[in-house]
Amino acid sequence: MRLAGLKNSERATIPLPRPALAMSTGIVIPLVPFEKYIIAHAIFCVIGFLGFLPLGALLARYTRTYTPAWFTAHWICQLALAGPTIIIGVALGIHAVNLSESGPVNDVHKRWGIAIFVLYLLQVGVGLTIHYVKPRGWASGRGRRPVQNYFHAVFGLLIIAFAMFQVRTGFRSEWPVQTGRGSVGNGANGFWYFWIIFITVLYFAGLGFVFRQFKQERDARRAVAMRDSPEMKPMSSPSEPSMPPQMA
Questions:
Q1: What is the mean pLDDT of residues 33-60?
Q2: What's the CA gap between 61 and 246, in Å, rounded?
Q3: How confident is the model at residue 6 (pLDDT cuts 50, 70, 90)?
Q4: Which long-range contacts (CB under 8 A, 24 or more apart) does 199-206 make?
Q5: Higher confidence at residue 138 or residue 108?
Q6: Are 160 and 49 in contact (CB under 8 A)?
Q7: Are 179 and 38 in contact (CB under 8 A)?
Q8: CA 185 – CA 191 distance, rounded (Å)
């Protein structure tokens, strides 16, 4: 703020930013309504995008080769828990923008927020399609894992990575700009780094189960091939062989 060349009376009419006013007077300025909505928006979106979504991915990665119940746990985290939490968080953010009258889409955080929310909805649609519309060979245990299954996994990881970036822009850039209260303390930044490293290490450690997963799928294909061979036809059971846990 440039005050040079202004008269004392003119300087007195220039409002100080709220952080400067608080520092100069020692007064703690209470949160105004739109700031409370921003905080609520941040809490819900962090829980949804960096809590439930990574949890669902980790459950799938660690348990799919041990129990068919992995899929139930996966969709509960990704859809039943994350879905309402994320929708509420996005709605709170939109309401905060309306209250502050800062403009609907005028910065990086808002643009990324809309894009990530749309990507999440697409990912849910892809997941449901993969589960209910399976290629015949894969559904019968004869074929290999289809490409769309790999796409679903990689796409989900990308959304979580985008959300990590988005959360950081929220507390490092969006909060100071929209509220004028200055940056969030280093505690939030430190926890962000810890959580990102923690989730990443856990997921990459879980990739060790990929070899067990591929072996189960390979064994299942061999079992089906043996059952369908002419030599084994008289000995085969009329019922279909059970699929390995990860093929649900």
A1: 96
A2: 10
A3: very low
A4: 199/50, 199/54, 199/58, 199/160, 202/58, 203/54, 203/57, 203/58, 203/61, 203/157, 206/58, 206/61, 206/62
A5: 108
A6: yes
A7: yes
A8: 11
Give the closest residue to 220 by CA, choosing from 132, 147, 143: 143
Report pLDDT for 222: 83
**DSSP letter string over 146-170?**
PHHHHHHHHHHHHHHHHHHHHHHHI
Among the residues of 133-238, which ranges form H helices? Answer: 136-140, 147-169, 175-179, 186-206, 210-228
Residue with tokens 């780094």: 193
CA atoms lying within 13 Å on the CB side of residue 160: 24
For 15, phi then psi, to 5°, come to -70, 135
Tokens matching residue 150: 């790999």
- pTM of this structure: 0.80
Which pLDDT tens digit goes with each residue over 112-136? 999 999 999 999 999 999 989 888 8
How far apart CA 185 and CA 193 sit, in angstroms, is 14
pLDDT at 104 over 80: no
- What six digits make up the tokens of 63? 């348990």
223 vs 24 pLDDT, higher one = 223
Cβ-count burial 56-75 (b if 16+ within 10 Å, e if not): bbbbbbbbbbeeeebbebbb
pLDDT in tens, 231-242: 665 555 555 555
- Separation between Cα atoms, residue 119 and residue 159, nearest integer Å: 7
Between CA 164 and CA 194 the distance in angstroms is 12
229 within 8 A of 120, measured Cβ to Cβ? no
